[in-house]
Structures are given as C-alpha cells and as structure tokens.
Write a structure and sequence with these properties.
The structure holds two protein chains of two kinds.
Chain A (H helix, E strand, L loop, with lengths): L2 H22 L15 H25 L19 H24 L1 H15 L4 H22 L6
Helix pairs in contact in A: 1-2, 3-4, 4-5
Chain B lengths: L1 H8 L2 H19 L5 H12 L4 H18 L1 H7 L13 H7 L3 H35 L3 H18 L4 H16 L1 E2 L6 E2 L13 H19 L17 H10 L1 H16 L5 H15 L11 H25 L5 H12 L11 H35 L4 H17 L5 H19 L5 H24 L5 H4 L1 H14 L1 H12 L7
Antiparallel strand pairs in B: 1-2
Helix pairs in contact in B: 1-16, 2-4, 2-16, 3-4, 3-15, 4-14, 4-16, 5-6, 5-7, 6-7, 7-11, 7-12, 7-14, 7-16, 8-9, 8-13, 8-19, 8-21, 9-19, 10-17, 10-18, 12-13, 12-14, 13-14, 17-18
Classes of the chains: A mainly alpha, B mainly alpha.
C-alpha cells in the first residue's frame, strides 16, 4: 500500500480512536469543585490526537499528488518481499502461538515448548533432525536458566 | 583511608557474592523481560544470609552488568534486554545490519564502564550537593522534565514530527489504562481485572520491538537460511579505542547527563539514555545520520545509562530517597540491615559501608570489561545460527519475557497485540521509541500535572513561573531551537554551515 493511503488509515484511525476515548471518558466521575479528575488527562491526550490525526490527513492529501521519490527512504522498507511461503510462515506462527498460549498452562512448559519450537523450525525450513536437536537444546537452556538458576515460575 | 576501604572490600565474603552477582547480571540483562529491578528483588532475600557489604556488592554487581548486557540483544536482535537498552535498538541494531555488530558492542563494552566510572566519581565527590539540587524539584519541574524527555524523543526519531506526536499520544493513552492513581477509579479496563494495574511496560516494549523483527523475517523466506547476525569484519577493542578517544567529550557529556538524570527521583537509566541520545544528536554536525548506524548514536546512550545507575545512588545515600526502582528495593533492604540511609549514613560504622559501596561500584566498572567481553563472545556464537532457528528462539524469549513479570498469560497476549501495532507503525513510518518513552513518562506527567493543579486550585501559572520551572523551560526551548541558534552564531562569526 502507498504511504499516503496508509497515512489516511492512520489519520482516520487516530480520529476515530480519540473520539471513542472522549465519549468513553464521559462516564468517569468528576470530583466535586475541581476540574481535574480521572477524565482530565485522557481528554487532553484525545484532543491532541484528533489534531494530529487531522494533520496526518492533510499531509497524506499533499503526498498523494507528489511523486513517490520525494518520500524519505526508510531503512526497513526494502526488507519485506511477501510470498506464498512467507504468508504461510506468518499464518502457521500465529496459529502455533495461539495454541501454545492456550495449552501451556495445562500440558506444562517443557512438552509444549518442545513441540512449538519443533513445528516453527520445521515450518521455517530446518531439517527434522536439526529441529529436534535445537528444540531440545533451547528448551533445556531456558528451563535451567529461568526455572533452576533464576527461580522464575514458568507457565 | 583508601587502604582501609580496600581491606574492608577485599574479603571472600564480599568478593564471592560480587562476582556471582555480575555473572547473574549478564543473563538477567541479556534476557528480554528480565530487568535489573527484578533481579534485585530476587536477590534481596538471598542477601539476608550475607554481610551487608556482601549483599550490597552482589546487588550492585548485578545492576551495573545487567544494564550493559541489555545492549547485547538490543544490538543483535533489536529486542532490548532491559528498558535502559531501548535506545540501543536504533544505531546499535543498524550497525548490526551493516555487518558491524562487534563494533557497536565494543563501543558499549568500553563506554558503558567509562560512563559508570564518571557516575561513581560524581557520587563520591558530590553526592550531597547533587542530591540537594534534585530535591528542589517539585510537581511543576518534574512535569517539565518529563515533557523535555518526550520532546527529545519525538525530535530524535525518524519520520515526521506529526507521526512522532501520534506515537506519543498513543503511549500516553496506554499509560492511563488501569486504576487512577489519584481517585482509584478504574479507567479503560472494560471489566478486565488484568488491566486494573495498567498495561505492563515490559510486555509492550518487547512486543513493539521484538515481534515486528520476527514478522518481517519470516515473511521473506529467502532470509530464513541467512545467519541472524552477519559480520563483515570483526572489530576488537583495540580497533575501537582510538574512536573512543576521539569521542571523549561526548562520553563525558553523556555520562554527566546520565548521572544527573539518574539522580532525579523517578527518572532512571532508561530516560537518561534517551536524553543523552537526543543531546548528542542535537550537537552533532551530522544529525541526519543518527538512526542509521552512527558511532555517536551508540556511544551516547551506553555512557549515560550506566552513569544513571550510579546517579540513582546519589539521593538514595545522601537523602534516603531512591533515585530509581533498584535503589528503592535496596533502601528497603538496608533498613532491614539496620541502616538508616540519609546524611548520617556517611558517618560512623555505616560510613565504612558507604565507602565500600563506592569502591565496589568502581571495581564493578573495571571488571565489566572482561565479563562483558566473554558475554559478547558467547552470545555472538548463538546469534550466528540461521534465522530459521533464531526466530522461534526470539518468539520464546518474547513470550517468557512478558510472562515472567507477573506470571500472567494475559501479558503475553498484550505483548502480541503491541507487536502487531509495532508492525503497522513501522510500515507507516510512525516511530516506535516515542510510544515506549510515553508509556514510561505518562504516569509521571499525569501525576505531577494533576497534583500541581490541585495544589494551586486549578491555576497553571506556577508551572511557568517557579524559578526552577523557568530554568527547565528555557533549557527545553534552547534544546529545541539549538539548530537555529547554532546557525545564527555561525552566521555571525562568518562560518559556512551549509554542510552541517
């Protein structure tokens, strides 16, 4: 998507979000005799956000008529070359993580983490043997470091 | 005198916990989500079994080393190990992408202890005087210091100022979620108990910086087989030393800024690093190169954040007021040891302990170099594995880092939500650092604004008329308009500034 189109999404999104905050903050109680209760700060921020949203929309409108070369190049720009495999990687990652978060508390940290790391590495193109090896090594390292040495409770 | 201090420190019951603490600091700092504060909280119960000097040495070793070690994953993977390393994701990570990770980390390895040394020397020389200045700050001045931090961050970030402003507004909004600090009213929690204590800063930071890196990499399968960190040339400390000497003024200035910001109660090493970066950019002849992998962009924050750790001890020791969350925990522990931090602490038996802390602080900065060197060597080997192995590992650390703070899976969900927000923001060239800093500074700004208004019955005048407020406001205006002032001075002197 062109930068100016994304800018329009950002500008409209900012205004919509700020309007929601302003409406939602109406229900906050106001302390008697003073005008600086819990709604004050969110209202100030939302008002600023609306102004900024309008400014982004104006900038986007100006950018629309400018050739693309005048936009500032970004160091992160050239990185994404989306492909079928890339989108598959993203889809599998999201599904695996949702499943991981849902079941890790019931099944336990070690088996769930082993399976998660194996599935992700296999999806990203690592061989079965190396996937198993790295999954075991990383899980063992993390378990020893967090649970044994630092005494952090793992999921 | 010095011999007596060294004799009190050079004992096995002090040195053993000190070295253990430093080794622990490497892991705590390098693991995203594990902060120096958290490590201090874990260590306090252990220190009860040690002598007061041994316990404080262990905590001090962990805190200083972890602040440095936080730069390692921030530089290699763009995932800050601790909040103080948030700035290292800018130029440090860009250097890694240019195949110069070892150069960035060598700068960290030398400048971090130098910053710490300056901080501890100032602590020794002027703890009481500096603490007295910091104590004169009230609601009004703290509000301006926080605004100064945000303004700095918007200016130093890439992208337009308007988009930087949007990032700040989102961050400030995020900071309002949870129970209102003044009235106790739950705001924007939508009946969810997990949001009552607010949106966790750590999950937000890990998600914003870590998840976009993973998403960008896995979307481009041809990058999966590449090593996650490629080195064009390995830089040693010897290669970097002459450049460090060249930047000595920058190191000193950043260390002074770090010590002063660290000494302000409530402002820690994280804010110190941002402000030092902003000042370095403002004073640079090539400010446009900041954020693209420039040496100064690595040196300034790394000098300031370790100096900030020392600075936080200034009000803690001199006045009994903690400068940051680490010293807050230490002060609590010190009371249990039977110590009373404050001006009287510098006298009598506790005076020996204070001098011991100074000695250990300086020794830690010296030992940081060999320990940090080994840490960099160890982590660089791990990060040379291909992206297909490293990306699942980053995801696992992002999950554990956001879970470990409250042992709550809700925080993991929040981390992913912020990850997606960060991915969108980067696509739309909205800078991430202002959002992160706004989450940190939001409560400080709101509390001081509202308490200040309450005290004056709603008048905004004292925010602008108190002498220290005026000084801070003038500093902000000077900082924001420094570029134009500098050009004016050069024009008056007849110097050509077109190249600058």
């Amino acid at each position: 998507m062109n930068t100016w189109k994304l800018d329009i999404v950002t500008g409209m999104g900012s205004i919509a979000f700020a309007s929601f905050v302003l409406i939602y903050a109406i229900r906050f109680p106001e302390p008697r005799g003073a005008d600086f209760g819990p709604a004050l700060f969110p209202r100030v921020i939302a008002s600023i956000l609306i102004i900024l949203g309008v400014l982004v929309l104006i900038q986007a409108w100006k950018l629309r008529t400018q050739p693309a070369t005048e936009c500032e190049p970004d160091p992160l720009d050239e990185e994404i070359v989306a492909s079928f495999h890339g989108l598959r990687n993203v889809a599998v990652t999201i599904i695996v993580l949702v499943i991981y978060i849902s079941v890790v508390g019931t099944i336990g940290f070690i088996p769930t983490t082993l399976v998660m790391l194996f599935v992700l590495m296999k999806t990203y193109g690592v061989s079965v043997l190396r996937s198993v090896l790295f999954a075991c090594l990383i899980t063992a390292f993390v378990y020893v470091l967090f649970a044994v040495l630092l005494r952090v409770v793992l999921p | 005198m010095i011999v007596d201090v060294l004799a009190s420190v050079m004992r096995i019951e002090v040195l053993a916990p000190w070295i253990l603490g430093m080794l622990l600091g490497v892991f705590v700092g390098a693991m995203p989500g594990m902060t120096a504060t958290m490590a201090t909280a874990i260590l306090v119960p252990i220190t009860y079994y040690l002598s007061p000097m041994g316990g404080l040495a262990m905590i001090l070793g962990t805190a200083c080393v972890s602040i440095f070690a936080g730069d390692i994953p921030a530089t290699y993977l763009r995932v800050p190990g601790t909040p103080s390393s948030g700035v290292a994701v800018l130029d440090g990570y860009q250097m890694t992408r240019q195949g110069k990770a070892s150069m960035a980390l060598s700068f960290d390895l030398i400048c971090s202890p130098l910053g710490g040394l300056v901080g501890f020397i100032l602590l020794i020389g002027g703890a009481t005087a500096l603490a007295a200045i910091a104590l004169r700050f009230s609601f009004y001045e703290f509000l301006w210091v926080a605004v100064f931090g945000l303004a700095t961050c918007v200016i130093i970030s890439r992208g337009t100022m308007v988009k930087g402003g949007i990032a700040v507004a989102i961050g400030l909004f995020v900071s309002t979620v949870g129970v209102d600090i003044v009235t106790g009213y739950p705001r924007f929690t939508f009946g969810n108990v997990n949001l009552l204590s607010g949106v966790g800063f750590i999950p937000a930071m890990i998600g914003l910086f870590g998840i976009p890196v993973v998403l960008r990499t896995i979307m481009t399968p041809k990058r999966m087989e590449l090593p996650s960190v490629e080195e064009k040339k390995r830089f040693s400390i010897g290669d970097v030393l002459p450049r460090v000497v060249k930047h000595r003024a920058l190191i000193l200035r950043s260390s002074l800024i770090g010590t002063f910001i660290g000494s302000l109660p409530g402002a820690g090493a994280d804010i110190a690093a941002w402000v030092a970066y902003g000042v370095a950019k403002r004073n640079s002849k090539t400010p446009e190169k900041f954020g693209t992998g420039i040496e100064e962009g690595v040196i300034a924050p790394t000098s300031a954040n370790n100096a900030g750790v020392a600075g936080a001890w200034i009000p803690a020791l001199a006045l009994g007021i903690p400068g940051d969350s680490i010293t807050a925990i230490i002060l609590g522990a010190a009371m249990i040891y039977g110590l009373r931090p404050g001006p009287l602490m510098f006298e009598g038996a506790s005076g020996e302990l204070v001098r011991g802390i100074f000695a250990i602080g300086i020794m830690t900065q010296i030992m940081l170099i060999p320990i940090g060197f080994l840490a960099i060597r160890a982590f660089s080997k791990i990060f040379r594995l291909p992206n297909s192995v490293i990306m699942p590992m980053i995801l696992l650390f992002c999950i554990l880092g956001s879970y470990a703070l409250n042992f709550n899976m809700f925080d993991v969900g929040l981390m992913f939500a912020f990850g997606l927000l960060g991915f969108y923001m980067e696509r739309n060239k909205i800078p991430l650092p202002p959002l992160v800093l706004a989450i940190i500074l939001g409560p400080l700004i709101e509390r001081n604004l509202r308490l200040g208004l309450m005290q004056t019955g709603g008048s905004l005048l004292p925010f602008f008329t108190r002498p220290i407020s005026v000084i801070v406001i003038v500093a902000i205006i000077l900082f924001l308009s420094w570029g134009r002032i500098y050009q004016l001075i050069c024009r008056l002197r007849g110097v050509n500034t077109t190249q600058e």
